[in-house]
């Protein structure tokens, strides 16, 4: 394919950036991270977005490389303003230089980052799914094809690397999946596989999901810091997606299930419990209006069953159902993906169908995530 066919930048992979879980150790040193990323578009250039959005200190990536994950392993250095050391100020995101790097649809590239000095590991997100695998090792192995077996571990934490763009054909586009832990888990990966298997090689699925996040509130304490920023803050940042054509929004269940009263949990007052109308207003003001300003179509996605979850009460399910009714019927959206209908028990709709509950009565099983991906209309992929 001639390079003359390549006319625009489109995001081909992406995650959200949030505050990582505040465990005892929050710094790393002499660390190499590696993220294998499947490229879904052919193109001739790449650029990389790195985020320290939730960091409180400058981050120095000592060196970073991209390499085709094949036998002929030839890492190419990632630079910014020609500098091979990448500096990300606290609270900021950066974009690398454009790198001449021909790729073909279906290839996998390794993105490797080495951190020589003490590095605050405060900006990242936890995601799972068949396409979301990563590795780390201690020592500088960013150029190496293989990590030492005795120093190598897998991880589902994605630090600093936020989005990868490819300079590609006009027909290609990105579909954004926005939400909380349910979207941070497997259905976006299964949707990406579905698109590929069905021959829709002109769409990338970009995940923007943070576990525990809410539309209307956020936590300002280290216990729940990893639950991320509220929707009004998150959405404009996370919708910076080159070539985005549409967004699927599956968000709001944590607004419903979190409040329990300060006598139970001082950080979860009853005053945080919204009405359905407040949730609807939040979606309209924070999400729909901004997406429309970008020329992006907006699809709603219904909230899943919660019967049996540890804070389940009938009033919460009534609130969920009222909000779901609006998500299904409002003319504010371009369409609705009815995940609730897909995974619920038809005989007991407040609960998951048999085989679709992960066991905690909130998150779906892998079978359910596959069913959710199948429920996304093909018109969003074309």
- Helix content range of the residues, please? 10-25%
Radius of gyration, Cα only, in angstroms? 21 Å
Instruction: Count all strands and give the number.
Output: 25
Runs in which pLDDT lies below 50 for 5 or more consecutive residues are none
Portion in strands = 25-35%
Estimated structural class? alpha+beta
- The CA-CA distance between the termini, in Å, is 21 Å
Question: Could you give a short account of the major beta sheet?
Answer: 6 strands, antiparallel
Looking across the biggest beta sheet, what order are the strands in? 8-7-12-4-15-16
Mean pLDDT level: 96
Shape: globular
Number of helices: 8
What does this molecule look like?
20% of the residues lie in helices and 32% in strands. The protein has 382 residues and is α+β, with helices and mostly antiparallel strands. It has a 6-stranded antiparallel β-sheet with strand order 8-7-12-4-15-16, with no helix packed on it. Strands 1, 5, 10, 11 and 18 form a 5-stranded antiparallel β-sheet that branches. A hairpin with a 2-residue loop joins strand 24 (344-345) and strand 25 (348-352). Helix 2 (187-197) crosses helix 8 (366-375), helix 3 (231-238) runs parallel beside helix 5 and helix 5 (276-293) runs parallel beside helix 6 (314-329). It is globular and about 55 Å long. The model has no long low-confidence stretch (mean pLDDT 96).
């Amino acid at each position: 394919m001639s390079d003359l066919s390549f006319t625009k930048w489109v995001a081909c992979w992406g995650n959200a950036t949030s505050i990582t879980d505040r465990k005892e150790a929050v710094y790393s040193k002499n660390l190499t991270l590696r993220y294998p990323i499947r490229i879904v578009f052919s193109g001739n250039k790449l650029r990389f977005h790195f985020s320290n959005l939730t960091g409180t200190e400058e981050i120095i990536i000592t060196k970073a490389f991209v390499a085709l994950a094949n036998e002929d392993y030839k890492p190419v250095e990632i630079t910014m303003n020609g500098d091979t050391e990448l500096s990300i100020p606290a609270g900021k995101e950066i974009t690398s230089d454009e790198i001449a790097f021909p790729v073909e649809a279906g290839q996998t590239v390794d993105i490797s980052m080495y951190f020589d000095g003490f590095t605050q590991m405060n900006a990242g997100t936890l995601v799972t799914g068949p396409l979301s695998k990563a590795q780390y090792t201690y020592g500088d192995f960013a150029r190496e094809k293989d990590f030492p077996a005795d120093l190598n571990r897998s991880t589902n934490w994605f630090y600093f690397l936020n989005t990868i763009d490819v300079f590609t054909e006009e027909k290609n586009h990105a579909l954004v999946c926005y939400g909380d832990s349910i979207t941070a888990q497997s259905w976006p990966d299964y949707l990406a596989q579905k698109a590929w298997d069905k021959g829709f090689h002109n769409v990338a699925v970009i995940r923007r999901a943070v576990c525990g996040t809410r539309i209307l509130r956020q936590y300002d304490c280290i216990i729940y810091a990893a639950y991320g920023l509220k929707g009004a803050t998150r959405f404009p940042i996370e919708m910076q997606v080159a070539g985005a054509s549409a967004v699927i929004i599956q968000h709001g269940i944590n607004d419903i299930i979190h409040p329990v009263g300060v006598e139970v949990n001082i950080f979860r007052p009853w005053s945080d419990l919204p009405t359905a109308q407040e949730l609807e207003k939040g979606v309209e003001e924070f999400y729909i209006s901004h997406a429309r300003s970008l020329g992006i179509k907006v699809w709603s996605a219904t909230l899943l069953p919660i019967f049996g979850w540890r804070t389940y009460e009938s009033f919460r399910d009534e609130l969920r159902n009222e909000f779901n009714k609006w998500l299904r019927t409002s003319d504010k959206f371009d369409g609705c993906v009815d995940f609730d209908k897909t995974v619920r028990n038809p005989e007991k709709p407040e609960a998951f169908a048999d085989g679709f509950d992960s066991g905690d009565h909130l998150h779906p099983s892998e079978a359910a995530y596959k069913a959710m991906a199948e429920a996304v209309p093909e018109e969003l992929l074309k």
